[in-house]
C-alpha cells in the first residue's frame, strides 16, 4: 500500500497510508494535482505537530470504522478542550 | 439509538463536529471567558458554516447568553441565525446591533426577552436589515410593531413571525402598508390575535414573491378558500415555497380555483416545497386534479401529513408527477392508504420518508420501499405496529420509530 508524508510547521514528518489521507477532500485534491504535492509529501505549515498527530489519529480512526456494521462498537474519539479550537480550524481546512 | 433519533446516517461524526461539541461543552462548563476571547481572535479562520454549527451546539445546551453571544459578533457578518435566544437579554440584542452593523438577515428563534426597546434599536442600528425571522417575540406590543414597520418601510423583503399573541390585526396592517410591496417572503404562524388575513391580497404584489407560509390561524374561518385564492391570484406565479399547514378551513375549492389557475406559468409550477398538513377537508379528487393538471418539475419536499381524507389515488398521482425530483415526503397519518400506493413508489432522489400511522405498512412494504428508492436513508414508521424488529431493509436505510427498538 502506498504511503505519503505529511509535514508539520516544525518540520516533523509523519507517514500515512494514501487511502487514509484521501478521506480529506483537501488532501485528495493535492494528491491528484499536477503540483509537487502529488509526489507524496505535503507540507502543512499551519499545523503544529500536536494537531497533525491528532488529525492523523482521526483519519485512521474514521478509516477503520467508516464501513463498520451496526453491531460493531465504535469507540468515541476523544479531543481535549485545550486543542479543540485549533483542531477545528485544521479540520475545517481539511474538510473532515 | 440516540444517533438514530438525531437522524445521523453515519456512525462516525466528522472531526469538525467533534471539535464543535467539545468547544461548546467547555464554554458551557467553565463559561470560559478566555476561550471566548481565543475564539474571537481566531474567528477569521472559522468558516461561517462552522460558526453556525457552533451556534447550534450552544443552543442545544441552552448556553447562548450575553457572554457567549460575543463569539458571533463580527463586523463582517451579514447573516445570523440563533435557534434559542431565551437567555439573551436586552443588552445582548443591543450589543448584536452595535457589533454586527452590516447584518442583512437575522433569525432569532425563541426570542422571549426581546422587548420593545430592543426591537426598535435593531431597526435603527441595522441599516441593511432586509430579512427578519422571529419566533416568540411576545413582549413586543402593537405600538412598537407599528413603529418598527414604519422604520423599515420599503426595506423588508422577508418577514416571518410566529408564536405571539400581541401581533394583531393592526400590526399586520402596519406591516402591509409599509412593507407589503417590497415583501418577497412572508411567514405568519400561530398568531392568536390576527383575524384579518383578507388584507394580505390587497398589499402583497411583488413580482418576485417566492415564499408564503400561513399556518394555524386561531379560527379556521380566518384563512378560508377566498383568502388563499385571491392571494395566489396576485403572488402565486413565482412561488417556490408554499406552506398552509393546519389551515383547516381550506377545501378543494382552494385547489380548483386557486392552485390550478394561479400556481403556474402555462402548466408548469416552480414550487420546490409544498406543505398542506392537517387539511382534513381536502379530498382525493382535489389532490388528483392538482397533480394531473399541473406539472411540478422542481418539487423536492412535500408534506400531506394528516390529510385524513386522502386515499391511494392522491398519493399515486403525486408520485406520477414528481417521483423523479422528490427528496422528502411526509405521508404521516394517511390512514386510508393501502399497500397499492407503495408499489408505485420509486423515487431516485428520495432521502427521507415519513409513513408513520399508515396502518397498512408492514415489514414487506418497508423492505420493498428501501429497495426501490436507492437514495433513501430514513424511513419513519411511528405507530406502524406491523413493522417489527425482523424488518430488514437495504443497508444504509434507518428505520425510526419501531416499537421493538429501545434506547
From TrEMBL, chain A:
Pfam families for this protein: Skp1_POZ
UniProt KW keywords: Nucleus
Where the record annotates domain SKP1 component POZ, the positions are: 4-61
UniProt key word Glycoprotein: no
Which SMART domains does the annotation name? Answer: Skp1 (SM00512)
Task: State the family it belongs to.
Answer: Belongs to the SKP1 family.
Choose one Gene Ontology CC annotation of this protein and give it.
Answer: nucleus
* Keyword Electron transport annotated: no
In terms of one coarse class, where is the protein primarily found? nucleus
Cellular location(s): Nucleus
Protein source organism: Kluyveromyces lactis (strain ATCC 8585 / CBS 2359 / DSM 70799 / NBRC 1267 / NRRL Y-1140 / WM37) (Yeast)
What is the protein named? Answer: Elongin-C
What are the BP-aspect GO terms? ubiquitin-dependent protein catabolic process
